[in-house]
Write a sequence for this structure.
């Protein structure tokens, strides 16, 4: 039986078609509702998770495509909100409604892993997630704050 | 109501067990995992009327707890000193779930670390729960103070009795009652037993804390859900789960008022995970909050239901809106705006003055339909129980709703049960913007649950959200003014034409209502001797609803743009000109103007021109407005101001337009005067967010219709602002004020788009009268 690795644990894929997007498997089958749906077509970033450490949109990534790769979701980023990105988000009171923020945090965490000192322009291009509440100015600042913290 | 009864227990169990059970490598079977994601690990407390003993159904579970001291719906204290505040407004990003309890806790002199927040069910005894209209603080600031002061006063009296001293010698401080001189003190918790035996004082007996003693009001604290949000534990409507629930995705008639002609569900029923396919009836009469009808696919996961829906073969009967074409309609609106309309406010004789003038300026503005597009689509889960005869015996709804009482009012009749018996718990909302005060999606969940005999969770896809919204009205506004010799208007005529929100509630309603016109049209603040402020008829062909800032979107776009046009026509500085238009410091005569002032008392909430001028001046000063003259082509400042939802804003926006037309917004300055502020950082956040939302609307906002069907269906076509599009810096200036609290959430939107377009004119000489900007070439040479 095929399995999938999420946050360091393996799960058997029983009665789940392999063309199911990772997003809905996480949410409805594993009950990990931290990863959010916003568009289903890779336009909003709400569903962002890490695949072998890189940001991907789980709404357009099927279980088949995940294969043997390691999935990390917000539930696996830290137990308690202690990841530097999460801490920066809290310090700057970034969230309004909060719905997009998991995707924003996963996106930022992946970006900072590969680029520890992003320029404003890089932040603007890489952080393409939609926030309908309009927390962008604070996200920009929080990414910078997290980058600083992580480089220490 | 057994469903609700087991809920709080389920919560506690899962809070400790759910994470562990996910992490076992030997996953038994995926189907069992489906329902493990309950409403656990969040601070949202769910409670039901059934928890309350003694017959009386009460909105505050604390009242039913014999151990607690609960003198008021909104506050209770446990013997261990824990204070519980009831949050009865919905949290959709404003911070209200934190802000109102802060007011209670301040007046109570509670220690914030010992305050818990419970989310209320829908219950009309709590007063208005429609989290909408930027009303929460305004409506409940005093009420929360009274709740806190009631509890404090009773604790003081209880301590006084214990010590045998007059209550006047006792006072509350940081979760204790202290004596003025004898050094005694006692914790709140220790007084619970005796305080609960006292009579509840009348409001007139209470002494509210003087402003100098406020400890929380006006001071920032992180929102209560912050950690849950950044760890993904926060539960929104899409995450709400009930035991044994099915997931539903619905195919709705693509044209409003349409219905299913033929249905072939055979393929859908064969899909993996699909449990059933259910037809929902078309609605009758005006749309109201009725569900739209269509065909629901019920499955064991959202995706299975979605795939099932894709496999449905449906033909539709489109009904009378089948030919709706928004482009053609805009032309009709513009034509209507040229003809005399229904005059709602008139001063002097504008028509005559204009007809005799040799110096007339006129302009026509338009804004397309807009969609709310909340980040979280509309979602709800319902559990409806019936007896052997099929009669509904109970209904429990768990939903991302701005208005749990509206859910009761819509679901009750739909199920044929008393609306007050519908139990509604509110999750966090992944934003709302007005969409989630319209509970059609809750009705869908309830009807489907009744049919299936088990809980049903309805998820709207983004396509559903954009194709079946209660849209912001499409509009045209005509402005005309005659200018006198000194370059100021002698007459101002303005005519707004758009389908009314009233059409959603009364079939065929086609004239904008006075309360709609009052958002930026009839409340015109300019001191001009001749005014004619009119509306024209427009029929609705889709469901029209209120969207953050509502009619200010189109009406302030016109009024603030036109003022700028007149300034340039008169070769005047737009800021100076605007100040002159606003005229002398005075209060607008609301009675003469027949304005309802959002039903706020005129003495507490006058239309104060001095405050409007003040925010305008402050924004101009912070932005260093005088730079405007020296700016090179391609750079410009735009200015606008408005009073909306009883709050005042002044906007200055700086733009850069490259030669090729590429627009960027380096800086925005907003001054806001919304009276007393409870949570300054949340006000700042709201104004930042309002700026981004208004950027979305101005740059990209357009939802069009062809053949009655919405054209744009996801964020690739209904584009909204991303980080790269929004202002790079938003400077928010909160005016210190002693005035009673006014609106904030929507207030920040009204004058943004016109200030932006005024800036574009300053930079390029191009006047934008038809939004969105994406339809215009801003290039210059
Ligand atoms: S839900 Fe995946 S990108 Fe929007
Ligand atoms: S915080 Fe609400 S959508 Fe981003």
């Amino acid at each position: 039986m095929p399995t999938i690795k999420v946050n360091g644990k393996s799960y058997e894929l029983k009665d789940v078609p392999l063309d199911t997007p990772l997003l809905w498997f996480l949410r409805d089958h594993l009950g990990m509702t931290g990863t959010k749906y916003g568009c289903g077509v890779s336009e909003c970033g709400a569903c962002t998770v890490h695949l072998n450490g890189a940001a991907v949109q789980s709404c357009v990534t099927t279980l088949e495509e995940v294969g043997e790769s390691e999935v990390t979701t917000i539930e696996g980023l830290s137990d308690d909100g202690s990841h530097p990105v999460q801490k920066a988000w809290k310090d700057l009171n970034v969230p309004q409604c909060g719905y997009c923020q998991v995707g924003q945090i996963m996106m930022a965490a992946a970006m900072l892993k590969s680029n520890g000192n992003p320029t404003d322009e890089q932040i603007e291009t890489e952080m393409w997630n939609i926030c309908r509440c309009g927390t962008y100015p604070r996200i920009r600042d929080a990414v910078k704050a997290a980058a600083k913290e992580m480089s220490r | 109501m057994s469903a609700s009864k087991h809920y709080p227990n389920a919560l506690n169990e899962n809070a400790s067990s759910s994470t562990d059970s996910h992490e076992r490598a030997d996953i038994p079977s995926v189907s069992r995992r489906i329902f493990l994601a309950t409403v656990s690990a969040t601070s949202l407390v769910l409670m039901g009327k059934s928890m309350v003993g003694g017959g009386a159904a009460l909105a505050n579970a604390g009242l039913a707890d014999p151990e607690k001291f609960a003198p008021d719906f909104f506050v209770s204290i446990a013997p261990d000193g824990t204070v519980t505040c009831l949050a009865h407004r919905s949290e959709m990003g404003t911070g209200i779930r934190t802000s109102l309890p802060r007011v209670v806790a301040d007046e109570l002199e509670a220690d914030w670390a010992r305050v818990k927040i419970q989310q209320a069910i829908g219950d009309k005894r709590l007063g208005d729960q429609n989290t909408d209209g930027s009303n929460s603080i305004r409506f409940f600031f005093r009420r929360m103070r009274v709740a806190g002061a009631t509890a404090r006063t009773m604790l003081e009296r209880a301590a006084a009795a214990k010590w045998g001293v007059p209550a006047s010698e006792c006072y509350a401080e940081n979760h204790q009652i202290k004596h003025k001189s004898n050094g005694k003190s006692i914790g709140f918790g220790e007084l619970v037993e005796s305080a609960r035996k006292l009579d509840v004082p009348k409001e007139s007996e209470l002494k509210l804390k003087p402003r100098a003693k406020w400890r929380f009001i006006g001071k920032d604290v992180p929102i209560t859900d912050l950690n849950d949000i950044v760890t993904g534990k926060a539960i929104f409507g899409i995450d709400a789960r009930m035991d044994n629930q099915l997931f539903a995705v619905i195919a709705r008639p693509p044209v409003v008022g349409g219905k299913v002609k033929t249905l072939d569900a055979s393929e859908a029923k064969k899909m993996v995970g699909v449990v059933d396919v259910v037809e929902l009836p078309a609605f009758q009469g005006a749309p109201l909050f009725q569900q739209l009808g269509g065909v629901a696919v019920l499955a064991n996961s959202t995706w299975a239901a979605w795939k099932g829906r894709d496999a449905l073969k449906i033909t539709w009967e489109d009904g009378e809106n089948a030919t709706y074409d928004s482009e053609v309609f805009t032309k009709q609106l513009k034509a209507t705006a040229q003809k005399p309309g229904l005059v709602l406010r008139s001063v002097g004789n504008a028509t005559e003055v204009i007809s005799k003038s040799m110096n007339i300026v006129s302009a026509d503005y338009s804004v397309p339909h807009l969609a709310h597009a909340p980040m979280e689509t509309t979602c709800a889960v319902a559990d409806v129980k019936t007896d052997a005869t099929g009669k509904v015996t109970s209904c429990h709804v768990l939903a991302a709703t701005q208005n749990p009482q509206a859910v009761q009012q819509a679901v009750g009749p739909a199920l044929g049960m008393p609306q007050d018996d519908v139990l509604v718990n509110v999750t966090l909302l992944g934003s709302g913007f007005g969409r989630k005060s319209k509970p059609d999606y809750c009705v869908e969940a309830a009807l489907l649950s009744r049919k299936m005999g088990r809980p049903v969770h309805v998820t709207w896809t983004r396509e559903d959200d954009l194709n079946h919204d209660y849209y912001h009205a499409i509009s045209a506004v005509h402005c005309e003014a005659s200018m006198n010799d000194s370059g100021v208007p002698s007459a101002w005529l303005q005519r707004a034409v758009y389908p009314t929100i009233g059409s959603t509630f009364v079939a065929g309603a086609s004239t904008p209502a006075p309360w709609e016109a009052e958002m930026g049209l009839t409340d015109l603040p300019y001191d001009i001797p001749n005014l004619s402020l009119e509306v024209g008829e427009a029929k609705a062909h889709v469901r029209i609803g209120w969207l953050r800032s509502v009619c200010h979107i189109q009406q302030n776009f016109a009024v603030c743009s036109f003022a700028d046009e007149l300034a340039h026509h008169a070769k005047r500085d737009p800021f100076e000109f605007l100040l002159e238009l606003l005229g002398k410091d005075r209060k607008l005569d609301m009675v003469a103007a027949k304005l309802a002032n959002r039903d706020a008392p005129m003495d507490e909430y006058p239309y104060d021109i001095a405050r409007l001028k003040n925010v305008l001046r402050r924004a101009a000063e912070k932005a260093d407005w005088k730079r405007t003259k020296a700016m090179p082509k391609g750079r410009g400042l735009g200015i606008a101001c408005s009073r909306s939802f009883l709050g005042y804003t002044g906007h200055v926006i700086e733009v850069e337009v490259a030669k090729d037309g590429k627009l960027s917004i380096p800086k925005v300055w907003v001054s806001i005067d919304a009276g007393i502020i409870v949570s300054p950082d949340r006000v700042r956040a709201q104004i930042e967010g309002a700026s981004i939302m208004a950027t979305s609307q101005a740059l990209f906002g357009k939802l069009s219709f062809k053949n009655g069907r919405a054209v744009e269906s996801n964020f690739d076509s209904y584009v909204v602002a991303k980080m790269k599009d929004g202002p790079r810096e938003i400077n928010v200036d909160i005016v210190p004020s002693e005035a009673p609290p006014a609106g904030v959430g929507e207030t920040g939107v009204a004058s943004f788009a016109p200030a932006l377009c005024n800036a574009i004119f300053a930079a390029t000489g191009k006047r934008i009268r038809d939004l969105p900007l994406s339809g215009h070439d801003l290039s210059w040479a």
Remarks:
- Chain B has three domains: 2-220, 237-320+378-459, 326-371+470-775.
- Chain B is about 30% helix and 20% strand.
- Chain B touches chain A through 82 residues (CB under 8 Å).
- The first strand of chain B starts at residue 69 and ends at 72.
